[in-house]
Amino acid sequence: MPEDLEFQMFVLDEHADELLAKGKDVLKLTIGVSELPTPQPVLDRIFDVLGDPDFVRRVYPEGLPELREAIAAHYNKKYGADVTKDNLIVSTGTSPIFRNLFQLVAGEGREILLPRPYYALYVYCATLAGATIKFYDIDPVSMRVDMDSFRKNFSPERTALVVVNSPGNPLGNIVNPDELREMYDIVDRQAYFLNDEIYNNCMFYEDFRSPLDLLPEYNEITIVTNSFSKGFRMYTKRVGFAILPLELQANLRVMQQHTLLCTDPCYQYGMIAALDDDESPVELAGIYKGRAEYTTQQLLKTGCEPVAAEGGFYAVLRCKGWNHDHGFDSSKELAHDILKKAHVAVVPGTDFGIPHDLRLAFCNARYDEGIDRLRSYFSSEV
């Protein structure tokens, strides 16, 4: 496997675990796994069927019918969609869905247009599919889509898929309705849009608007992916889903019949209870909003400037000047130095197309203490 594709998030997380095993007090701000507990109604529903020998044998490659019905009803009610369970596919998180979709709609000679900064999975899946990768930029200061870069890198003849991630990982930016419509109008039905909405229930300052509601006239090219890993706090349960046009759903169903077989039916059954729980995501979003604001307040003018997140699980620190002044070639070296000296594990921006920056996950009960340690580090107090 090419070394430059290794996910540095896991590399730094494992190095932090090694130090923890040696008794060091390391704070991990690496993986977006919420520290908040799984809501009790979800656990109760899972436990109700774990001992049922008939239920645990239920195999539906495209997902339990009752969960697909519940997701459709949830999106129709909460986000103004107009979908049925036949538009739904369930998998072990959204990562396999991305892999399968990229291979299904793109390949050699086709292009996939990604946001930059990007989630590392997008680049990896596009590489596996043999597609050419193009980028449109998100301005880290204004948090707006650079429409000039979008127009420049979209090709009506070659672009097969456009990825939108809002709230974004790593920036925490929100693609607003006007931007989304302009992007769809530029593409003019010449490619699919994949809208990664995994953080849509972790908005800090406004309500989420889905393209399924904003742009119903484009439903035939709109794909939405989401998961129970983030705002619903169930990262390791690995239940994600996609809402797709019928022809894509049918193709993914066949792919999963051969390559996935099934997602755990007990966990799927528990997710139905999660969809009825509005309070847990609201609680999480409030906590993470506070941590985002604390990051901005404490790290301004430290040399690694924070980007004020508008939603999601992460803060970004812009460290190009710091790296230059301190002799670091990239944020990879900086992240290792921070771990060594401050005992805080962060993720290099090399994973996200921002090689001089850092990403911090809000998912630690001692997060603010981690920020205080980083402030001391950047103030040369460690």
Question: Could you walk me through the main structural features you see in this protein, from its secondary elements to its overall organization?
Answer:
This protein is α/β, with parallel strands linked by helices. It has two domains: about 5-30 and about 280-380, Aspartate Aminotransferase, domain 1 (Alpha-Beta Complex), CATH 3.90.1150; about 40-275, Aspartate Aminotransferase, domain 2. Helices cover about 40% and strands about 15% of the residues. The chain has 14 helices and 13 strands. It has helices at about 10-20, 40-50, 65-80, 95-105, 120-130, 145-155, 175-185, 210-215, 245-260, 265-275, 280-300, 320-325, 330-340, 365-380, and strands at about 25-30, 90, 110-115, 130-135, 160-165, 190-195, 220-225, 240-245, 305, 315-320, 345, 345-350, 360. The chain has a seven-stranded mixed beta sheet with strand order 2-8-7-6-5-3-4, sandwiched between helices. Strands 9-10-13-12 form a four-stranded antiparallel beta sheet. A two-stranded parallel sheet has the order 1-11. Helix 1 packs parallel to helix 13 and helix 11 runs parallel beside helix 14. The longest helix has 21 residues, at about 280-300.
